[in-house]
TrEMBL record:
The keyword Zinc-finger does not apply. SUPFAM superfamilies: CoaB-like (SSF102645), Homo-oligomeric flavin-containing Cys decarboxylases, HFCD (SSF52507). This is Unannotated protein. One of its GO terms (molecular function) is phosphopantothenoylcysteine decarboxylase activity. Pfam families: DFP, Flavoprotein. PANTHER family: HOMO-OLIGOMERIC FLAVIN CONTAINING CYS DECARBOXYLASE FAMILY, PHOSPHOPANTOTHENOYLCYSTEINE DECARBOXYLASE. GO terms for cellular component: phosphopantothenoylcysteine decarboxylase complex. Keywords: Decarboxylase, Lyase. Residues 184-390 form the DNA/pantothenate metabolism flavoprotein C-terminal domain. It comes from freshwater metagenome. GO terms for biological process: coenzyme A biosynthetic process; pantothenate catabolic process. The keyword Nucleotidyltransferase does not apply.
Length: 396
C-alpha cells in the first residue's frame, strides 16, 4: 500500500523567496500531499535543513554524492507523483531547459517522468531577460507548468514582476495541473476494514474471508483527498498508511469500542469491515482438545452499524457494505439500508469467494433516495473514490 496522499518533491532554489516555501510546504500538506524536500546547496544559505526536516517530518536530501549505493536521484524520481520547484531561480530554469544535471535536484528532474511545476521568483530584470523568457518558452513547450510570478515588492526597494506567488495560488495551480482536488479537506472520515475474529480457544476462531483491501483503499483515497482519516482495522495484513491514524482490533467488541470512541468526531463513517454476527459463548485462552469441541454455543454480537446510527449527529453521513450471494442481493441490501438508517450501501455478490482478497470489485451503490448505480468491474481504489463522491455530495 502506498503512503498517504500524493508523493511530491519540493525542490527549493537558491533565492530569498526560499523562506516562503516553508508556508507552501504546509499548505501542500493540508491538501493531502506528502513532501520530500530537495534543496539546492545555494538555498541552504537562506533556509537550513533543520527547518525542512522539521516541517516535512522527513529526511532532507541535498547531496548527490551521499548514499550513492541507493542511487537517490533515481529512487526519488520514481517515487514522486509530481515535482514542484519553488522558488525556481533563473539559474535553475536555465539548467532544466538545457538538460543540465549537476546536482541532486536537477538529476531528479532529469530522471523523472512525473509532472513538473516551476514557481519562478527573481528580480524583474532577470525574469524579463531574453534568455529566461526563451528558457521558460522551451519548458512550457515540453509540458512543464511554469507559474507566472506575481508583481509586487521584492528585496530592498525593488518592485515589479518576479514576486513569489501566494501559497494559495500555487496550490490551486498545482492541483489544476495534476487534475486532482483536496475536496475533503477539513472532513474527518472514519473507516472500518477487515474481518473480525471471535476466539474459540488459543488457536481457533470464528471469522470470514475479508482481507481489508477495500477499507484500506477507502482510507488511502480519503487521505489523498485531504481528509483526516481514522481507520479501524480488524486482522489486516496491509502496512499502516502514512498519515492515517490506524487502530488495530481483533473482535467485534473491540471494533465497536474503537468506532464508538471516534464516531462523534467524524463527519463520515464508511463501514466496509465484515463483522462476525456471532461469537462463542465461552472461549478459552488454552487450546481445547477436539474431543471436547463437538459443539459450540453461539451468542449474537452487537450490531455495530445499528448501534452507531442510533447515536448519529446531525449531518453525519454513514455508508455501509453488504456482501450477498445468489439472487435478491439488492433487495436485501436495500432492506439493510432502511433498517439501519444508512445514507448509502454498496452491495456485491461474493458467491464462490469472489471479491474477498482480490484487487477488483463489482456491484451496486444503493442510495437512500432510491437510486441504484451499477459499478462495473473496477479496482477497489476506484470504488473508494466513487463512495467518497457519494459521501461528499451528502455532506453538501
Amino acid at each position: 500500500m502506498p503512503p498517504r496522499g500524493r508523493e511530491l518533491i519540493l525542490g527549493v532554489g537558491g533565492g530569498i523567496a526560499a523562506y516562503k516555501s516553508a508556508d507552501l510546504l504546509r499548505r501542500l500538506q493540508d491538501h493531502g500531499f506528502l513532501i520530500t524536500v530537495v534543496p539546492t546547496r545555494a538555498s541552504l544559505n537562506f533556509v537550513g535543513k533543520a527547518t525542512w526536516e522539521a516541517l516535512s517530518g522527513r529526511e532532507v536530501h541535498e547531496d548527490l554524492w551521499k548514499n550513492v549505493s541507493s542511487v537517490p536521484h533515481i529512487s526519488l524520481a520514481r517515487s514522486a507523483d509530481a515535482i514542484v520547484i519553488a522558488p525556481a531561480t533563473a539559474d535553475l530554469i536555465a539548467k532544466i531547459a538545457t538538460g543540465r544535471a549537476d546536482d541532486l535536484l536537477t538529476n531528479i528532474v532529469s530522471a523523472s517522468a512525473s509532472p513538473i511545476i516551476l514557481v519562478p521568483a527573481m528580480h524583474p530584470e532577470m525574469w524579463l531577460n531574453p534568455a529566461t523568457i526563451e528558457n521558460v518558452k522551451i519548458l512550457r513547450s515540453r509540458g512543464l507548468l511554469v507559474i507566472d510570478p506575481d508583481e509586487g515588492r521584492l528585496t530592498g526597494a525593488d518592485s515589479g514582476p518576479g514576486r513569489f506567488p501566494t501559497s494559495e495560488r500555487i496550490v490551486h495551480e498545482v492541483e489544476d495541473f495534476l487534475g486532482s482536488k483536496a475536496d475533503l479537506q477539513g472532513v474527518t472520515v472514519l473507516v472500518s476494514a477487515g474481518g473480525t475474529r471471535e476466539p474459540i480457544d488459543a488457536v481457533r476462531y470464528l471469522g470470514n474471508l475479508s482481507s481489508g483491501k477495500q477499507g484500506y483503499a477507502l482510507a488511502y483515497a480519503a487521505a489523498k483527498r485531504g481528509a483526516r482519516v481514522l481507520l479501524v482495522a480488524a486482522n489486516c495484513e496491509q502496512p499502516d498508511i502514512e498519515g492515517v491514524t490506524t487502530i488495530h482490533v481483533k473482535t467485534a467488541a473491540e471494533m465497536l469500542e474503537a468506532l464508538s470512541a471516534n464516531f462523534a468526531s467524524a463527519q463520515v463513517l464508511i463501514m466496509s469491515a465484515a463483522v462476525a454476527d456471532f461469537r462463542p459463548s465461552i472461549s478459552s485462552d488454552q487450546k481445547i482438545d477436539k474431543s471436547e469441541l463437538a459443539s459450540l454455543t453461539l451468542i449474537e454480537n452487537p450490531d455495530i452499524l445499528k448501534t452507531l446510527t442510533a447515536r448519529r449527529l446531525q449531518g453525519q453521513v454513514i455508508i455501509g457494505f453488504a456482501a450477498q450471494t445468489g439472487e435478491g442481493g439488492s433487495e436485501k441490501a436495500m432492506a439493510k439500508l432502511k433498517a439501519k438508517g444508512l445514507d448509502a450501501i454498496y452491495v456485491n455478490d461474493v458467491s464462490g469467494g469472489a471479491i474477498f482478497g482480490e484487487e477488483l470489485t463489482n456491484g451496486s451503490i444503493l442510495d437512500s433516495d432510491g437510486t441504484i448505480s451499477t459499478v462495473a468491474t473496477t479496482s477497489k481504489d476506484s470504488l473508494a473514490h466513487l463512495l467518497l463522491d457519494v459521501a461528499r455530495n451528502k455532506l453538501g
